[in-house]
Design a protein that fits this description.
Largest sheet: 4 strands, antiparallel
Order of helices and strands: HHHHHHEEHHHEEHH
Number of helices: 11
Radius of gyration: 36 Å
Helix content: 55-70%
Structural class: alpha+beta
Oligomer: single chain
Distance between the termini: 58 Å
Number of strands: 4
Shape: elongated
Strand order of the largest sheet: 1-2-3-4
Protein backbone atom coordinates (compact mmCIF):
# COMPACT_ATOMS: atom_id res chain seq x y z
CA UNK A 1 0.00 0.00 0.00
CA UNK A 2 2.94 2.36 0.68
CA UNK A 3 4.23 1.85 -2.86
CA UNK A 4 0.75 2.64 -4.22
CA UNK A 5 0.62 5.91 -2.29
CA UNK A 6 4.07 6.96 -3.54
CA UNK A 7 3.08 6.08 -7.10
CA UNK A 8 -0.15 8.06 -6.79
CA UNK A 9 1.68 11.10 -5.46
CA UNK A 10 4.19 10.87 -8.29
CA UNK A 11 1.50 10.58 -10.94
CA UNK A 12 -0.43 13.55 -9.47
CA UNK A 13 2.69 15.67 -9.38
CA UNK A 14 3.42 14.82 -12.99
CA UNK A 15 -0.15 15.71 -13.94
CA UNK A 16 -0.02 19.12 -12.29
CA UNK A 17 3.39 19.85 -13.79
CA UNK A 18 2.21 18.88 -17.28
CA UNK A 19 -0.92 20.98 -16.85
CA UNK A 20 1.20 24.00 -15.95
CA UNK A 21 3.37 23.51 -19.03
CA UNK A 22 0.28 23.42 -21.27
CA UNK A 23 -1.56 26.28 -19.61
CA UNK A 24 -0.61 28.79 -22.32
CA UNK A 25 -2.28 28.14 -25.67
CA UNK A 26 0.30 27.29 -28.27
CA UNK A 27 3.10 27.25 -25.69
CA UNK A 28 6.12 25.13 -26.58
CA UNK A 29 9.55 24.45 -25.10
CA UNK A 30 10.82 27.86 -26.16
CA UNK A 31 7.93 29.58 -24.40
CA UNK A 32 8.55 27.52 -21.30
CA UNK A 33 12.24 28.50 -21.26
CA UNK A 34 11.33 32.12 -21.86
CA UNK A 35 9.14 32.09 -18.75
CA UNK A 36 12.08 30.95 -16.71
CA UNK A 37 14.26 33.83 -17.86
CA UNK A 38 14.31 37.16 -16.07
CA UNK A 39 12.14 39.82 -17.76
CA UNK A 40 13.88 41.92 -20.35
CA UNK A 41 13.37 45.68 -20.29
CA UNK A 42 13.03 45.71 -24.07
CA UNK A 43 10.49 42.89 -24.23
CA UNK A 44 6.85 43.71 -24.91
CA UNK A 45 4.32 42.29 -22.45
CA UNK A 46 1.82 39.93 -24.00
CA UNK A 47 -1.76 41.21 -23.77
CA UNK A 48 -4.04 39.43 -21.36
CA UNK A 49 -7.05 37.54 -22.59
CA UNK A 50 -9.38 40.33 -21.42
CA UNK A 51 -7.35 42.95 -23.31
CA UNK A 52 -7.39 40.77 -26.39
CA UNK A 53 -11.17 40.36 -26.23
CA UNK A 54 -11.63 44.11 -25.72
CA UNK A 55 -9.43 45.00 -28.68
CA UNK A 56 -11.06 42.48 -31.03
CA UNK A 57 -14.69 43.10 -30.04
CA UNK A 58 -16.44 45.69 -32.20
CA UNK A 59 -19.23 45.99 -29.63
CA UNK A 60 -16.91 46.68 -26.69
CA UNK A 61 -14.84 49.14 -28.71
CA UNK A 62 -18.05 50.95 -29.67
CA UNK A 63 -19.10 51.14 -26.01
CA UNK A 64 -15.70 52.50 -24.97
CA UNK A 65 -15.80 55.18 -27.69
CA UNK A 66 -19.09 56.68 -26.46
CA UNK A 67 -18.88 60.19 -25.05
CA UNK A 68 -21.22 61.72 -22.50
CA UNK A 69 -23.70 64.28 -23.82
CA UNK A 70 -23.78 66.08 -20.45
CA UNK A 71 -21.95 69.46 -20.52
CA UNK A 72 -18.60 69.09 -18.77
CA UNK A 73 -18.52 70.75 -15.34
CA UNK A 74 -22.27 71.45 -15.35
CA UNK A 75 -24.65 70.54 -12.55
CA UNK A 76 -25.78 67.51 -14.57
CA UNK A 77 -22.19 66.34 -14.93
CA UNK A 78 -21.52 66.78 -11.21
CA UNK A 79 -24.63 64.75 -10.38
CA UNK A 80 -23.50 61.97 -12.72
CA UNK A 81 -20.01 61.86 -11.24
CA UNK A 82 -21.33 61.79 -7.67
CA UNK A 83 -23.84 58.97 -8.19
CA UNK A 84 -21.43 56.85 -10.24
CA UNK A 85 -18.79 57.12 -7.55
CA UNK A 86 -21.26 55.57 -5.10
CA UNK A 87 -22.44 52.88 -7.52
CA UNK A 88 -22.24 49.31 -6.21
CA UNK A 89 -21.79 48.20 -9.85
CA UNK A 90 -23.28 44.73 -9.57
CA UNK A 91 -23.21 44.56 -13.36
CA UNK A 92 -19.45 45.02 -13.21
CA UNK A 93 -19.17 41.82 -11.15
CA UNK A 94 -21.17 40.02 -13.83
CA UNK A 95 -18.78 41.33 -16.47
CA UNK A 96 -15.77 40.19 -14.49
CA UNK A 97 -17.31 36.74 -14.10
CA UNK A 98 -18.01 36.56 -17.85
CA UNK A 99 -14.42 37.52 -18.61
CA UNK A 100 -13.12 34.72 -16.41
CA UNK A 101 -15.43 32.23 -18.10
CA UNK A 102 -14.18 33.46 -21.47
CA UNK A 103 -10.57 33.05 -20.39
CA UNK A 104 -11.30 29.51 -19.24
CA UNK A 105 -13.08 28.69 -22.51
CA UNK A 106 -10.17 30.04 -24.56
CA UNK A 107 -8.12 27.04 -23.39
CA UNK A 108 -10.75 24.38 -23.98
CA UNK A 109 -8.84 23.02 -27.02
CA UNK A 110 -5.96 21.85 -24.81
CA UNK A 111 -5.80 18.24 -23.56
CA UNK A 112 -7.67 17.44 -20.38
CA UNK A 113 -5.48 15.73 -17.80
CA UNK A 114 -6.30 14.45 -14.35
CA UNK A 115 -5.48 11.72 -11.83
CA UNK A 116 -7.60 8.61 -11.34
CA UNK A 117 -6.98 6.94 -7.98
CA UNK A 118 -8.83 3.80 -6.89
CA UNK A 119 -8.61 1.37 -4.02
CA UNK A 120 -8.38 -2.30 -5.02
CA UNK A 121 -9.97 -5.19 -3.17
CA UNK A 122 -6.52 -6.11 -1.81
CA UNK A 123 -6.23 -2.77 -0.01
CA UNK A 124 -3.71 -1.14 -2.34
CA UNK A 125 -4.03 2.15 -4.21
CA UNK A 126 -3.93 2.15 -7.98
CA UNK A 127 -3.12 5.54 -9.51
CA UNK A 128 -3.43 6.36 -13.18
CA UNK A 129 -3.12 9.55 -15.20
CA UNK A 130 -6.09 10.11 -17.50
CA UNK A 131 -5.45 12.08 -20.70
CA UNK A 132 -8.11 13.09 -23.21
CA UNK A 133 -7.65 15.17 -26.36
CA UNK A 134 -10.52 16.06 -28.67
CA UNK A 135 -9.64 15.52 -32.30
CA UNK A 136 -12.94 16.41 -33.95
CA UNK A 137 -16.06 17.74 -32.24
CA UNK A 138 -18.10 19.32 -35.07
CA UNK A 139 -17.14 22.81 -33.88
CA UNK A 140 -18.30 22.46 -30.28
CA UNK A 141 -15.17 23.86 -28.63
CA UNK A 142 -15.03 26.74 -31.11
CA UNK A 143 -18.68 27.44 -30.35
CA UNK A 144 -17.92 27.43 -26.62
CA UNK A 145 -15.17 30.01 -27.13
CA UNK A 146 -17.44 32.19 -29.27
CA UNK A 147 -20.26 31.85 -26.73
CA UNK A 148 -17.94 32.93 -23.90
CA UNK A 149 -16.72 35.98 -25.83
CA UNK A 150 -20.29 36.92 -26.75
CA UNK A 151 -21.23 36.51 -23.10
CA UNK A 152 -18.59 39.11 -22.23
CA UNK A 153 -20.08 41.48 -24.81
CA UNK A 154 -23.58 40.99 -23.40
CA UNK A 155 -22.27 41.68 -19.89
CA UNK A 156 -20.48 44.80 -21.15
CA UNK A 157 -23.68 46.16 -22.72
CA UNK A 158 -25.60 45.37 -19.53
CA UNK A 159 -23.00 47.32 -17.56
CA UNK A 160 -23.38 50.29 -19.90
CA UNK A 161 -27.17 50.12 -19.58
CA UNK A 162 -26.98 49.83 -15.79
CA UNK A 163 -24.68 52.86 -15.60
CA UNK A 164 -26.84 54.98 -17.89
CA UNK A 165 -29.98 53.96 -15.99
CA UNK A 166 -28.39 55.05 -12.72
CA UNK A 167 -27.40 58.44 -14.08
CA UNK A 168 -30.85 58.81 -15.63
CA UNK A 169 -32.52 58.13 -12.28
CA UNK A 170 -30.27 60.65 -10.54
CA UNK A 171 -30.93 63.34 -13.13
CA UNK A 172 -34.67 62.70 -12.87
CA UNK A 173 -34.46 63.33 -9.13
CA UNK A 174 -32.33 66.43 -9.66
CA UNK A 175 -34.81 67.85 -12.18
CA UNK A 176 -37.68 67.03 -9.84
CA UNK A 177 -35.95 68.90 -7.03
CA UNK A 178 -35.08 71.86 -9.25
CA UNK A 179 -38.64 72.10 -10.54
CA UNK A 180 -40.05 71.90 -7.02
CA UNK A 181 -37.71 74.64 -5.81
CA UNK A 182 -38.50 76.95 -8.73
CA UNK A 183 -42.24 76.48 -8.36
CA UNK A 184 -41.96 77.03 -4.61
CA UNK A 185 -40.14 80.31 -5.30
CA UNK A 186 -42.90 81.42 -7.65
CA UNK A 187 -45.51 80.44 -5.04
CA UNK A 188 -43.65 82.47 -2.44
CA UNK A 189 -43.77 85.53 -4.69
CA UNK A 190 -47.48 84.92 -5.37
CA UNK A 191 -48.07 84.62 -1.65
CA UNK A 192 -46.51 88.03 -1.03
CA UNK A 193 -48.47 89.70 -3.83
CA UNK A 194 -51.73 88.03 -2.86
CA UNK A 195 -51.07 89.01 0.75
CA UNK A 196 -50.88 92.62 -0.38
CA UNK A 197 -54.26 92.28 -2.10
CA UNK A 198 -55.63 90.64 1.04
CA UNK A 199 -54.45 93.57 3.13
CA UNK A 200 -56.10 96.06 0.79
CA UNK A 201 -59.34 94.10 0.81
CA UNK A 202 -59.35 93.78 4.60
CA UNK A 203 -58.96 97.56 4.90
CA UNK A 204 -61.79 98.07 2.45
CA UNK A 205 -64.01 95.71 4.44
CA UNK A 206 -63.07 97.49 7.65
CA UNK A 207 -64.02 100.79 6.07
CA UNK A 208 -67.30 99.36 4.79
CA UNK A 209 -66.34 99.79 1.14
CA UNK A 210 -66.25 96.08 0.26
CA UNK A 211 -68.20 93.04 1.33
CA UNK A 212 -66.84 90.33 3.65
CA UNK A 213 -67.40 87.71 0.95
CA UNK A 214 -64.68 89.33 -1.18
CA UNK A 215 -62.24 88.99 1.71
CA UNK A 216 -63.20 85.33 2.16
CA UNK A 217 -62.39 84.70 -1.51
CA UNK A 218 -58.93 86.19 -1.06
CA UNK A 219 -58.38 84.14 2.09
CA UNK A 220 -59.22 80.98 0.17
CA UNK A 221 -56.82 81.94 -2.60
CA UNK A 222 -54.08 82.54 -0.02
CA UNK A 223 -54.71 79.10 1.43
CA UNK A 224 -54.40 77.47 -2.00
CA UNK A 225 -51.12 79.25 -2.68
CA UNK A 226 -49.74 78.18 0.70
CA UNK A 227 -50.72 74.58 0.02
CA UNK A 228 -49.03 74.65 -3.42
CA UNK A 229 -45.88 76.15 -1.93
CA UNK A 230 -45.73 73.52 0.81
CA UNK A 231 -46.27 70.72 -1.72
CA UNK A 232 -43.47 71.98 -3.96
CA UNK A 233 -41.10 72.40 -1.01
CA UNK A 234 -41.82 68.86 0.16
CA UNK A 235 -41.39 67.58 -3.41
CA UNK A 236 -37.98 69.22 -3.68
CA UNK A 237 -36.88 68.00 -0.24
CA UNK A 238 -37.93 64.43 -0.98
CA UNK A 239 -36.11 64.39 -4.32
CA UNK A 240 -32.94 65.85 -2.81
CA UNK A 241 -33.00 63.35 0.06
CA UNK A 242 -33.36 60.45 -2.39
CA UNK A 243 -30.62 61.88 -4.60
CA UNK A 244 -28.25 62.24 -1.63
CA UNK A 245 -28.97 58.63 -0.67
CA UNK A 246 -27.53 57.42 -3.99
CA UNK A 247 -24.66 59.92 -4.13
CA UNK A 248 -21.18 59.81 -2.62
CA UNK A 249 -21.54 63.41 -1.42
CA UNK A 250 -24.44 65.71 -0.53
CA UNK A 251 -25.90 67.50 -3.54
CA UNK A 252 -28.33 69.76 -1.67
CA UNK A 253 -26.41 72.91 -2.58
CA UNK A 254 -26.31 72.13 -6.29
CA UNK A 255 -28.52 74.39 -8.42
CA UNK A 256 -29.08 75.26 -12.06
CA UNK A 257 -30.29 73.33 -15.08
CA UNK A 258 -27.90 73.54 -18.04
CA UNK A 259 -29.19 73.52 -21.55
CA UNK A 260 -27.99 70.63 -23.66
CA UNK A 261 -29.14 68.80 -26.73
CA UNK A 262 -28.78 65.21 -27.89
CA UNK A 263 -28.96 64.15 -31.52
CA UNK A 264 -30.52 60.81 -32.37
CA UNK A 265 -27.44 60.03 -34.48
CA UNK A 266 -25.04 60.46 -31.55
CA UNK A 267 -24.77 56.71 -30.98
CA UNK A 268 -26.51 53.42 -31.66
CA UNK A 269 -29.23 52.71 -29.06
CA UNK A 270 -28.06 50.33 -26.37
CA UNK A 271 -31.11 48.13 -26.95
CA UNK A 272 -29.90 47.41 -30.47
CA UNK A 273 -26.32 46.81 -29.32
CA UNK A 274 -27.59 44.35 -26.70
CA UNK A 275 -29.69 42.54 -29.32
CA UNK A 276 -26.64 42.19 -31.57
CA UNK A 277 -24.54 40.79 -28.73
CA UNK A 278 -27.31 38.36 -27.79
CA UNK A 279 -27.60 37.35 -31.43
CA UNK A 280 -23.90 36.39 -31.53
CA UNK A 281 -24.31 34.46 -28.30
CA UNK A 282 -27.42 32.68 -29.58
CA UNK A 283 -25.64 31.63 -32.78
CA UNK A 284 -22.72 30.30 -30.73
CA UNK A 285 -25.15 28.38 -28.51
CA UNK A 286 -26.76 26.94 -31.65
CA UNK A 287 -23.34 25.72 -32.82
CA UNK A 288 -22.86 23.97 -29.50
CA UNK A 289 -26.31 22.38 -29.70
CA UNK A 290 -25.62 21.23 -33.24
CA UNK A 291 -22.31 19.66 -32.23
CA UNK A 292 -24.07 17.83 -29.39
CA UNK A 293 -26.35 16.15 -31.93
CA UNK A 294 -23.44 14.64 -33.91
CA UNK A 295 -20.68 12.19 -32.95
CA UNK A 296 -17.14 13.40 -32.30
CA UNK A 297 -13.67 11.90 -32.25
CA UNK A 298 -11.17 12.02 -29.39
CA UNK A 299 -7.92 10.35 -28.42
CA UNK A 300 -6.85 9.47 -24.91
CA UNK A 301 -6.15 6.85 -22.37
CA UNK A 302 -4.53 6.17 -19.02
CA UNK A 303 -0.92 6.22 -17.89
CA UNK A 304 0.08 3.96 -15.02
CA UNK A 305 -0.78 0.37 -14.30
CA UNK A 306 -2.49 -1.22 -17.27
CA UNK A 307 -1.82 1.79 -19.49
CA UNK A 308 -4.24 2.13 -22.36
CA UNK A 309 -4.38 4.52 -25.34
CA UNK A 310 -6.75 4.76 -28.24
CA UNK A 311 -9.10 6.75 -30.39
CA UNK A 312 -12.81 6.69 -29.68
CA UNK A 313 -16.00 8.07 -31.13
CA UNK A 314 -18.04 9.96 -28.58
CA UNK A 315 -21.49 11.53 -28.59
CA UNK A 316 -23.63 12.98 -25.84
CA UNK A 317 -26.79 11.91 -27.62
CA UNK A 318 -27.66 8.98 -29.80
CA UNK A 319 -28.68 9.56 -33.38
CA UNK A 320 -32.38 9.05 -33.90
CA UNK A 321 -35.12 9.58 -36.43
CA UNK A 322 -35.69 13.11 -35.10
CA UNK A 323 -32.05 14.22 -35.40
CA UNK A 324 -32.68 15.94 -38.73
CA UNK A 325 -35.57 17.93 -37.31
CA UNK A 326 -33.45 18.88 -34.30
CA UNK A 327 -30.70 20.20 -36.58
CA UNK A 328 -33.22 22.21 -38.59
CA UNK A 329 -34.64 23.65 -35.35
CA UNK A 330 -31.14 24.75 -34.35
CA UNK A 331 -30.67 26.50 -37.68
CA UNK A 332 -34.05 28.18 -37.22
CA UNK A 333 -32.83 29.50 -33.86
CA UNK A 334 -30.05 31.37 -35.69
CA UNK A 335 -32.59 33.02 -37.97
CA UNK A 336 -34.76 33.93 -34.99
CA UNK A 337 -31.78 35.66 -33.35
CA UNK A 338 -31.26 37.78 -36.47
CA UNK A 339 -34.92 38.75 -36.55
CA UNK A 340 -34.77 39.82 -32.90
CA UNK A 341 -32.04 42.29 -33.86
CA UNK A 342 -34.23 43.67 -36.65
CA UNK A 343 -37.15 43.98 -34.22
CA UNK A 344 -34.97 45.72 -31.62
CA UNK A 345 -33.76 48.12 -34.30
CA UNK A 346 -37.32 48.89 -35.33
CA UNK A 347 -38.45 49.44 -31.73
CA UNK A 348 -35.47 51.71 -31.01
CA UNK A 349 -36.11 53.78 -34.14
CA UNK A 350 -39.75 54.15 -33.17
CA UNK A 351 -38.76 55.37 -29.69
CA UNK A 352 -36.21 57.76 -31.19
CA UNK A 353 -38.76 59.29 -33.54
CA UNK A 354 -41.26 59.59 -30.70
CA UNK A 355 -38.77 61.33 -28.41
CA UNK A 356 -37.63 63.64 -31.20
CA UNK A 357 -41.23 64.66 -31.84
CA UNK A 358 -41.95 65.16 -28.15
CA UNK A 359 -38.79 67.23 -27.64
CA UNK A 360 -39.63 69.47 -30.58
CA UNK A 361 -43.22 69.87 -29.34
CA UNK A 362 -42.22 70.64 -25.74
CA UNK A 363 -39.55 73.10 -26.84
CA UNK A 364 -42.09 74.93 -29.00
CA UNK A 365 -44.66 74.89 -26.21
CA UNK A 366 -42.09 76.23 -23.74
CA UNK A 367 -41.31 79.15 -26.05
CA UNK A 368 -45.01 79.85 -26.51
CA UNK A 369 -45.52 79.68 -22.75
CA UNK A 370 -42.76 82.23 -22.24
CA UNK A 371 -44.50 84.56 -24.69
CA UNK A 372 -47.84 84.04 -22.96
CA UNK A 373 -46.24 84.77 -19.60
CA UNK A 374 -44.88 88.04 -20.93
CA UNK A 375 -48.30 88.91 -22.32
CA UNK A 376 -49.97 88.07 -19.00
CA UNK A 377 -47.49 90.34 -17.21
CA UNK A 378 -48.32 93.22 -19.56
CA UNK A 379 -52.03 92.69 -18.93
CA UNK A 380 -51.39 92.68 -15.20
CA UNK A 381 -49.48 95.96 -15.41
CA UNK A 382 -52.34 97.53 -17.37
CA UNK A 383 -54.91 96.38 -14.80
CA UNK A 384 -52.69 97.61 -11.99
CA UNK A 385 -52.50 101.05 -13.58
CA UNK A 386 -56.25 101.08 -14.08
CA UNK A 387 -56.75 100.04 -10.44
CA UNK A 388 -54.49 102.82 -9.26
CA UNK A 389 -56.59 105.21 -11.38
CA UNK A 390 -59.76 103.92 -9.74
CA UNK A 391 -61.06 102.19 -12.87
CA UNK A 392 -60.76 98.58 -11.61
CA UNK A 393 -61.79 96.66 -8.54
CA UNK A 394 -59.36 94.63 -6.40
CA UNK A 395 -60.83 91.31 -7.51
CA UNK A 396 -60.39 92.34 -11.14
CA UNK A 397 -56.68 92.75 -10.58
CA UNK A 398 -56.58 89.54 -8.55
CA UNK A 399 -58.13 87.58 -11.41
CA UNK A 400 -55.56 88.86 -13.90
CA UNK A 401 -52.77 88.17 -11.39
CA UNK A 402 -53.94 84.56 -11.02
CA UNK A 403 -53.75 84.14 -14.79
CA UNK A 404 -50.19 85.47 -14.72
CA UNK A 405 -49.20 83.14 -11.85
CA UNK A 406 -50.70 80.08 -13.53
CA UNK A 407 -48.88 80.92 -16.75
CA UNK A 408 -45.59 81.14 -14.86
CA UNK A 409 -46.16 77.71 -13.38
CA UNK A 410 -47.06 76.27 -16.80
CA UNK A 411 -43.89 77.73 -18.33
CA UNK A 412 -41.76 76.09 -15.65
CA UNK A 413 -43.53 72.75 -16.13
CA UNK A 414 -42.92 72.76 -19.88
CA UNK A 415 -39.29 73.75 -19.45
CA UNK A 416 -38.56 70.81 -17.18
CA UNK A 417 -40.58 68.39 -19.29
CA UNK A 418 -38.41 69.30 -22.28
CA UNK A 419 -35.25 68.74 -20.21
CA UNK A 420 -36.60 65.39 -19.02
CA UNK A 421 -37.19 64.26 -22.60
CA UNK A 422 -33.60 65.17 -23.51
CA UNK A 423 -32.37 62.97 -20.66
CA UNK A 424 -34.66 60.14 -21.81
CA UNK A 425 -33.16 60.38 -25.29
CA UNK A 426 -29.62 60.37 -23.90
CA UNK A 427 -30.39 57.23 -21.87
CA UNK A 428 -31.82 55.45 -24.91
CA UNK A 429 -28.63 56.22 -26.82
CA UNK A 430 -26.41 55.37 -23.85
CA UNK A 431 -24.59 58.72 -23.74
CA UNK A 432 -25.10 59.75 -20.11
CA UNK A 433 -21.56 58.65 -19.20
CA UNK A 434 -18.22 58.27 -20.95
CA UNK A 435 -17.68 54.74 -22.21
CA UNK A 436 -14.04 54.53 -21.15
CA UNK A 437 -14.99 55.63 -17.64
CA UNK A 438 -17.58 52.85 -17.44
Amino acid sequence: MGKGVKRAVGVCAAAFALTGCLSDAGGGPQDFVARLKSPDANSVARPTHAEKVNSESVIIQGLVARRSALPAGSSFDRVAVAVLAANSRSAEAELRSARLRSEAASKNWLPKIGPNISLTSLGSLVANLVVDQVLFDNGRQKGEREFAVADVEVAAVNLAQDTNDRVHTALELYLDAAEGREKATLAEASLRDMGHFHYIMSERVRGGVSDMSDLNILQQKLGEIKADRAANVERAQTAVAELNAMSIEPLSGLHGVPGFGVKSTAAQPLEVVLAEAEKTRAIAAAKIDRADQLPGLSAGGTIGENSDFGVRVSSDTLLGFGTGASLRAIEAAKEAAGRRVAQANEDANRKLRKLEGQIAAKSRQAKEAAGLTAQAKRNLDIFQEQYDAGQRQVLDVVGVYETFARQQQAEVTLKYEAAQLQIDLARLLGVLANGDAI
